[in-house]
Amino acid sequence: xxxxxxxxxxxxxxxxxxxxxxxxxxxxxxxxxxxxxxxxxxxxxxxxxxxxxxxxxxxxxxxxxxxxxxxxxxxxxxxxxxxxxxxxxxxxxxxxxxxxxxxxxxxxxxxxxxxxxxxxxxxxxxxxxxxxxxxxxxxxxxxxxxxxxxxxxxxxxxxxxxxxxxxxxxxxxxxxxxxxxxxxxxxxxxxxxxxxxxxxxxxxxxxxxxxxxxxxxxxxxxxxxxxxxxxxxxxxxxxxxxxxxxxxxxxxxxxxxxxxxxxxxxxxxxxxxxxxxxxxxxxxxxxxxxxxxxxxxxxxxxxxxxxxxxxxxxxxxxxxxxxxxxxxxxxxxxxxxxxxxxxxxxxxxxxxxxxxxxxxxxxxxxxxxxxxxxxxxxxx
Length: 380
Description:
Layout: H1 5-22, E1 27-35, H2 42-62, E2 68-76, H3 81-93, E3 99-102, H4 106-119, E4 123-125, E5 141-143, H5 153-161, E6 167-173, H6 176-191, E7 195-202, H7 214-220, E8 224-228, H8 233-241, E9 250-254, H9 261-267, E10 274-278, H10 289-300, H11 306-324, H12 330-338, E11 341-344, E12 347-350, E13 352-354, E14 357-360, E15 366-370, E16 375-377
Parallel strand pairs: 1-2, 1-3, 3-4, 4-5, 6-7, 6-8, 8-9, 9-10
Antiparallel strand pairs: 10-15, 11-12, 13-14, 15-16
Helix pairs in contact: 1-2, 1-11, 2-11, 3-4, 8-9, 11-12
Protein backbone atom coordinates (compact mmCIF):
# COMPACT_ATOMS: atom_id res chain seq x y z
CA UNK A 1 0.00 0.00 0.00
CA UNK A 2 1.48 3.35 -1.07
CA UNK A 3 0.55 6.78 0.18
CA UNK A 4 1.52 10.06 -1.47
CA UNK A 5 3.16 12.92 0.35
CA UNK A 6 -0.26 14.59 0.41
CA UNK A 7 -1.76 11.53 2.11
CA UNK A 8 0.93 11.50 4.79
CA UNK A 9 0.42 15.21 5.40
CA UNK A 10 -3.34 14.61 5.59
CA UNK A 11 -2.80 12.10 8.39
CA UNK A 12 -0.74 14.63 10.32
CA UNK A 13 -3.41 17.27 9.65
CA UNK A 14 -6.13 15.07 11.16
CA UNK A 15 -4.01 14.49 14.24
CA UNK A 16 -3.17 18.14 14.69
CA UNK A 17 -6.86 19.08 14.33
CA UNK A 18 -7.62 16.65 17.11
CA UNK A 19 -4.95 18.36 19.19
CA UNK A 20 -6.64 21.67 18.65
CA UNK A 21 -9.96 20.27 19.82
CA UNK A 22 -8.44 19.00 23.06
CA UNK A 23 -6.21 21.98 23.84
CA UNK A 24 -8.02 25.23 23.22
CA UNK A 25 -5.17 27.64 23.94
CA UNK A 26 -1.85 28.05 22.19
CA UNK A 27 0.82 25.85 23.73
CA UNK A 28 4.08 24.13 23.05
CA UNK A 29 4.68 20.47 23.86
CA UNK A 30 8.30 19.86 24.84
CA UNK A 31 9.68 16.50 23.67
CA UNK A 32 12.96 15.25 25.07
CA UNK A 33 14.99 13.19 22.58
CA UNK A 34 17.79 11.05 24.01
CA UNK A 35 20.19 9.63 21.45
CA UNK A 36 23.90 8.68 21.17
CA UNK A 37 25.06 11.74 19.24
CA UNK A 38 28.70 11.01 20.07
CA UNK A 39 30.54 7.76 20.63
CA UNK A 40 30.39 4.34 18.94
CA UNK A 41 26.66 4.51 18.25
CA UNK A 42 26.66 8.07 16.91
CA UNK A 43 25.86 6.92 13.34
CA UNK A 44 22.59 5.44 14.57
CA UNK A 45 21.92 8.47 16.74
CA UNK A 46 22.42 10.83 13.83
CA UNK A 47 20.04 8.88 11.59
CA UNK A 48 17.33 8.84 14.25
CA UNK A 49 17.83 12.54 14.98
CA UNK A 50 17.33 13.33 11.28
CA UNK A 51 14.17 11.22 11.10
CA UNK A 52 12.67 12.87 14.20
CA UNK A 53 13.43 16.35 12.91
CA UNK A 54 11.93 15.44 9.55
CA UNK A 55 8.72 14.18 11.19
CA UNK A 56 8.27 17.37 13.20
CA UNK A 57 9.04 19.54 10.17
CA UNK A 58 6.42 17.71 8.13
CA UNK A 59 3.93 18.01 10.96
CA UNK A 60 4.47 21.75 11.13
CA UNK A 61 4.23 22.12 7.35
CA UNK A 62 0.97 20.18 7.28
CA UNK A 63 -0.77 22.68 9.57
CA UNK A 64 1.21 25.90 10.07
CA UNK A 65 -1.68 27.78 11.73
CA UNK A 66 -2.48 25.30 14.47
CA UNK A 67 -1.91 26.48 18.02
CA UNK A 68 -0.28 23.33 19.40
CA UNK A 69 3.40 23.05 18.45
CA UNK A 70 6.18 20.64 19.31
CA UNK A 71 9.64 21.63 20.51
CA UNK A 72 12.45 19.10 20.29
CA UNK A 73 15.15 19.15 22.96
CA UNK A 74 18.06 16.78 22.34
CA UNK A 75 20.25 15.07 24.91
CA UNK A 76 23.40 13.06 24.14
CA UNK A 77 23.50 9.66 25.85
CA UNK A 78 26.83 8.69 24.22
CA UNK A 79 25.51 5.13 24.57
CA UNK A 80 26.51 5.27 28.25
CA UNK A 81 24.14 4.80 31.23
CA UNK A 82 25.71 7.59 33.29
CA UNK A 83 25.66 10.08 30.44
CA UNK A 84 22.12 9.01 29.54
CA UNK A 85 20.84 9.60 33.05
CA UNK A 86 22.47 13.02 33.23
CA UNK A 87 21.08 14.03 29.82
CA UNK A 88 17.60 12.87 30.80
CA UNK A 89 17.79 14.76 34.09
CA UNK A 90 18.73 17.91 32.21
CA UNK A 91 15.76 17.56 29.85
CA UNK A 92 13.35 17.03 32.73
CA UNK A 93 14.71 19.76 35.01
CA UNK A 94 15.67 22.50 32.57
CA UNK A 95 13.39 21.96 29.60
CA UNK A 96 10.37 20.57 31.46
CA UNK A 97 9.71 17.97 28.77
CA UNK A 98 6.34 16.20 28.77
CA UNK A 99 7.72 13.00 27.26
CA UNK A 100 11.06 11.34 26.47
CA UNK A 101 11.86 9.28 23.38
CA UNK A 102 14.92 7.50 22.00
CA UNK A 103 17.36 5.30 23.83
CA UNK A 104 19.22 3.11 21.25
CA UNK A 105 21.62 1.43 23.68
CA UNK A 106 19.81 -0.95 26.05
CA UNK A 107 21.97 -0.03 29.03
CA UNK A 108 21.44 3.68 28.41
CA UNK A 109 17.71 3.10 27.88
CA UNK A 110 17.45 1.30 31.21
CA UNK A 111 19.04 4.26 32.99
CA UNK A 112 16.60 6.62 31.28
CA UNK A 113 13.62 4.39 32.06
CA UNK A 114 14.46 4.28 35.75
CA UNK A 115 14.83 8.06 35.90
CA UNK A 116 11.60 8.57 33.93
CA UNK A 117 9.81 6.39 36.47
CA UNK A 118 11.19 8.44 39.36
CA UNK A 119 9.91 11.66 37.78
CA UNK A 120 6.68 10.27 36.28
CA UNK A 121 7.60 11.19 32.70
CA UNK A 122 6.61 8.83 29.85
CA UNK A 123 9.52 7.31 27.96
CA UNK A 124 9.00 5.80 24.50
CA UNK A 125 11.90 3.53 23.53
CA UNK A 126 12.51 3.54 19.80
CA UNK A 127 15.34 1.07 19.25
CA UNK A 128 16.82 -0.64 22.36
CA UNK A 129 15.88 -4.32 22.35
CA UNK A 130 16.99 -5.95 25.64
CA UNK A 131 14.03 -7.97 26.91
CA UNK A 132 14.22 -6.69 30.48
CA UNK A 133 13.36 -3.12 29.49
CA UNK A 134 9.65 -3.99 29.45
CA UNK A 135 9.82 -6.60 32.20
CA UNK A 136 10.59 -4.35 35.18
CA UNK A 137 7.14 -2.97 36.03
CA UNK A 138 8.07 0.52 34.88
CA UNK A 139 4.64 2.00 34.20
CA UNK A 140 6.00 5.08 32.37
CA UNK A 141 8.12 3.07 29.90
CA UNK A 142 6.76 2.01 26.50
CA UNK A 143 8.62 0.29 23.69
CA UNK A 144 8.02 0.63 19.97
CA UNK A 145 10.46 -2.04 18.70
CA UNK A 146 10.47 -5.79 19.27
CA UNK A 147 12.50 -7.27 22.13
CA UNK A 148 15.51 -9.21 20.93
CA UNK A 149 14.01 -12.58 21.94
CA UNK A 150 11.25 -12.12 19.32
CA UNK A 151 13.43 -11.06 16.40
CA UNK A 152 14.48 -14.53 15.21
CA UNK A 153 11.02 -15.72 14.15
CA UNK A 154 11.62 -15.39 10.37
CA UNK A 155 14.70 -17.64 10.45
CA UNK A 156 13.01 -20.08 12.84
CA UNK A 157 9.95 -20.43 10.61
CA UNK A 158 12.02 -20.83 7.45
CA UNK A 159 14.17 -23.58 8.94
CA UNK A 160 11.10 -25.28 10.38
CA UNK A 161 9.57 -25.52 6.89
CA UNK A 162 12.62 -27.15 5.28
CA UNK A 163 11.87 -30.80 4.54
CA UNK A 164 14.38 -33.61 4.22
CA UNK A 165 18.06 -33.12 4.95
CA UNK A 166 18.93 -30.03 7.01
CA UNK A 167 22.72 -29.99 6.95
CA UNK A 168 23.71 -26.49 7.98
CA UNK A 169 26.93 -24.54 7.61
CA UNK A 170 27.40 -21.23 9.39
CA UNK A 171 29.73 -18.86 7.57
CA UNK A 172 30.65 -15.93 9.80
CA UNK A 173 33.06 -13.04 10.08
CA UNK A 174 35.57 -13.24 12.94
CA UNK A 175 34.14 -10.46 15.08
CA UNK A 176 32.11 -9.85 18.20
CA UNK A 177 29.04 -9.49 16.00
CA UNK A 178 29.78 -12.77 14.25
CA UNK A 179 30.16 -14.65 17.51
CA UNK A 180 27.06 -13.08 19.06
CA UNK A 181 24.82 -13.93 16.12
CA UNK A 182 26.26 -17.45 15.95
CA UNK A 183 25.00 -18.19 19.46
CA UNK A 184 21.49 -17.17 18.45
CA UNK A 185 21.61 -19.23 15.26
CA UNK A 186 22.85 -22.33 17.09
CA UNK A 187 19.83 -22.16 19.41
CA UNK A 188 17.46 -21.86 16.45
CA UNK A 189 19.08 -24.82 14.69
CA UNK A 190 18.64 -26.97 17.79
CA UNK A 191 14.97 -26.07 18.06
CA UNK A 192 14.33 -26.80 14.37
CA UNK A 193 16.40 -30.03 14.34
CA UNK A 194 18.83 -28.63 11.81
CA UNK A 195 22.26 -30.30 11.95
CA UNK A 196 25.19 -27.87 12.06
CA UNK A 197 27.96 -29.64 10.17
CA UNK A 198 30.51 -26.84 10.42
CA UNK A 199 31.09 -23.24 11.49
CA UNK A 200 33.45 -21.51 9.07
CA UNK A 201 35.10 -18.26 10.16
CA UNK A 202 36.89 -15.74 7.97
CA UNK A 203 39.02 -12.78 9.13
CA UNK A 204 37.62 -9.27 9.04
CA UNK A 205 39.81 -7.24 6.71
CA UNK A 206 39.27 -4.36 4.33
CA UNK A 207 39.97 -6.68 1.41
CA UNK A 208 40.62 -10.41 1.36
CA UNK A 209 42.87 -11.45 -1.53
CA UNK A 210 41.02 -14.73 -1.78
CA UNK A 211 38.10 -16.55 -0.22
CA UNK A 212 39.73 -19.10 2.10
CA UNK A 213 36.34 -20.45 3.09
CA UNK A 214 35.24 -21.46 -0.43
CA UNK A 215 37.00 -24.88 -0.56
CA UNK A 216 35.45 -25.80 2.79
CA UNK A 217 31.99 -24.84 1.56
CA UNK A 218 32.53 -27.00 -1.53
CA UNK A 219 33.51 -29.95 0.64
CA UNK A 220 30.69 -29.51 3.16
CA UNK A 221 28.03 -28.98 0.48
CA UNK A 222 25.43 -27.71 2.95
CA UNK A 223 21.69 -27.83 2.37
CA UNK A 224 21.40 -24.58 4.28
CA UNK A 225 23.97 -21.79 4.41
CA UNK A 226 23.62 -19.25 7.21
CA UNK A 227 25.80 -16.18 6.63
CA UNK A 228 26.84 -13.55 9.18
CA UNK A 229 28.68 -10.59 7.68
CA UNK A 230 28.84 -6.87 8.26
CA UNK A 231 31.65 -6.09 5.82
CA UNK A 232 32.34 -5.97 2.08
CA UNK A 233 32.94 -9.72 1.98
CA UNK A 234 29.14 -10.08 1.87
CA UNK A 235 29.26 -9.40 -1.88
CA UNK A 236 31.77 -12.17 -2.57
CA UNK A 237 29.87 -14.61 -0.35
CA UNK A 238 26.73 -14.15 -2.44
CA UNK A 239 28.69 -14.39 -5.69
CA UNK A 240 30.45 -17.61 -4.67
CA UNK A 241 27.33 -19.23 -3.24
CA UNK A 242 25.84 -19.52 -6.71
CA UNK A 243 28.92 -21.18 -8.24
CA UNK A 244 29.21 -23.94 -5.66
CA UNK A 245 28.98 -27.37 -7.29
CA UNK A 246 25.79 -27.85 -5.30
CA UNK A 247 24.24 -24.50 -4.32
CA UNK A 248 22.44 -24.54 -0.95
CA UNK A 249 18.68 -25.00 -0.99
CA UNK A 250 18.36 -22.06 1.38
CA UNK A 251 20.66 -19.14 2.18
CA UNK A 252 19.80 -16.87 5.10
CA UNK A 253 21.98 -13.80 5.62
CA UNK A 254 22.39 -11.60 8.67
CA UNK A 255 24.10 -8.21 8.58
CA UNK A 256 23.42 -4.69 7.34
CA UNK A 257 24.91 -5.22 3.82
CA UNK A 258 22.23 -7.80 3.05
CA UNK A 259 19.53 -5.14 3.41
CA UNK A 260 21.10 -3.13 0.57
CA UNK A 261 20.09 -3.87 -3.02
CA UNK A 262 23.58 -2.91 -4.24
CA UNK A 263 25.07 -5.87 -2.36
CA UNK A 264 23.08 -8.31 -4.50
CA UNK A 265 23.59 -6.37 -7.72
CA UNK A 266 27.35 -6.19 -7.16
CA UNK A 267 27.37 -9.95 -6.55
CA UNK A 268 25.27 -10.48 -9.70
CA UNK A 269 23.14 -12.77 -7.58
CA UNK A 270 20.53 -14.73 -9.50
CA UNK A 271 19.52 -17.15 -6.75
CA UNK A 272 15.94 -16.82 -5.54
CA UNK A 273 16.67 -18.75 -2.35
CA UNK A 274 18.49 -15.92 -0.56
CA UNK A 275 16.68 -14.45 2.46
CA UNK A 276 17.32 -11.89 5.13
CA UNK A 277 15.17 -10.17 7.75
CA UNK A 278 14.83 -6.77 9.35
CA UNK A 279 12.60 -4.96 11.85
CA UNK A 280 11.52 -2.76 8.92
CA UNK A 281 12.07 -2.27 5.22
CA UNK A 282 10.81 0.36 2.81
CA UNK A 283 9.00 -2.36 0.85
CA UNK A 284 7.10 -3.50 3.95
CA UNK A 285 3.32 -3.27 3.43
CA UNK A 286 2.83 -0.30 5.76
CA UNK A 287 1.08 2.93 4.71
CA UNK A 288 3.63 5.59 3.88
CA UNK A 289 6.74 3.38 4.24
CA UNK A 290 7.99 3.87 0.70
CA UNK A 291 7.07 7.55 0.65
CA UNK A 292 8.97 8.11 3.88
CA UNK A 293 12.05 6.32 2.51
CA UNK A 294 11.95 8.42 -0.65
CA UNK A 295 11.58 11.74 1.19
CA UNK A 296 14.29 10.79 3.69
CA UNK A 297 16.72 10.06 0.88
CA UNK A 298 15.81 13.27 -0.93
CA UNK A 299 16.33 15.32 2.24
CA UNK A 300 19.50 13.72 3.58
CA UNK A 301 20.99 11.56 0.82
CA UNK A 302 20.82 8.55 3.13
CA UNK A 303 18.93 5.29 2.63
CA UNK A 304 16.36 5.01 5.41
CA UNK A 305 16.93 1.94 7.57
CA UNK A 306 14.84 0.57 10.41
CA UNK A 307 16.40 3.01 12.89
CA UNK A 308 15.11 5.94 10.84
CA UNK A 309 11.66 4.34 10.56
CA UNK A 310 11.48 3.70 14.30
CA UNK A 311 12.36 7.31 15.08
CA UNK A 312 9.88 8.76 12.59
CA UNK A 313 7.14 6.42 13.82
CA UNK A 314 7.82 7.51 17.41
CA UNK A 315 6.70 11.03 16.51
CA UNK A 316 3.59 9.61 14.82
CA UNK A 317 2.78 7.70 18.01
CA UNK A 318 3.38 10.72 20.24
CA UNK A 319 1.21 13.01 18.12
CA UNK A 320 -1.56 10.42 18.18
CA UNK A 321 -1.32 10.04 21.97
CA UNK A 322 -1.27 13.77 22.63
CA UNK A 323 -4.25 14.23 20.31
CA UNK A 324 -6.21 11.90 22.64
CA UNK A 325 -4.80 13.11 25.96
CA UNK A 326 -7.16 15.11 28.17
CA UNK A 327 -4.33 17.56 28.89
CA UNK A 328 -0.68 17.99 27.89
CA UNK A 329 0.70 16.87 31.26
CA UNK A 330 2.83 13.74 31.54
CA UNK A 331 0.25 11.60 33.34
CA UNK A 332 -2.43 12.30 30.73
CA UNK A 333 0.01 11.50 27.94
CA UNK A 334 0.97 8.26 29.70
CA UNK A 335 -2.69 7.26 29.96
CA UNK A 336 -3.19 8.04 26.26
CA UNK A 337 -0.15 5.95 25.32
CA UNK A 338 -1.68 3.01 27.20
CA UNK A 339 -4.62 3.14 24.79
CA UNK A 340 -2.54 3.53 21.62
CA UNK A 341 -3.72 1.63 18.58
CA UNK A 342 -2.43 3.50 15.54
CA UNK A 343 -0.99 2.62 12.15
CA UNK A 344 2.44 4.12 11.46
CA UNK A 345 5.11 3.73 8.80
CA UNK A 346 6.51 1.07 11.18
CA UNK A 347 3.26 -0.86 11.22
CA UNK A 348 0.45 -1.07 13.75
CA UNK A 349 1.48 0.23 17.18
CA UNK A 350 -0.37 -1.13 20.18
CA UNK A 351 1.25 -1.45 23.59
CA UNK A 352 0.47 -4.85 25.04
CA UNK A 353 1.05 -6.80 28.22
CA UNK A 354 1.90 -10.48 27.78
CA UNK A 355 4.10 -12.92 29.67
CA UNK A 356 6.57 -10.81 31.62
CA UNK A 357 6.26 -7.88 29.21
CA UNK A 358 4.29 -4.69 29.77
CA UNK A 359 3.60 -1.77 27.42
CA UNK A 360 5.35 -3.56 24.58
CA UNK A 361 4.45 -3.10 20.91
CA UNK A 362 4.90 -6.15 18.68
CA UNK A 363 5.48 -5.14 15.06
CA UNK A 364 6.36 -8.29 13.11
CA UNK A 365 9.83 -8.73 11.68
CA UNK A 366 10.00 -8.40 7.91
CA UNK A 367 11.25 -11.44 6.00
CA UNK A 368 12.85 -10.43 2.70
CA UNK A 369 13.80 -12.51 -0.34
CA UNK A 370 16.04 -11.42 -3.20
CA UNK A 371 13.92 -11.50 -6.35
CA UNK A 372 16.73 -10.82 -8.81
CA UNK A 373 15.90 -7.12 -8.92
CA UNK A 374 14.89 -6.09 -5.41
CA UNK A 375 14.31 -7.30 -1.87
CA UNK A 376 10.68 -8.24 -1.49
CA UNK A 377 8.73 -9.05 1.70
CA UNK A 378 7.44 -12.61 1.84
CA UNK A 379 5.05 -14.21 4.35
CA UNK A 380 6.35 -16.59 6.97
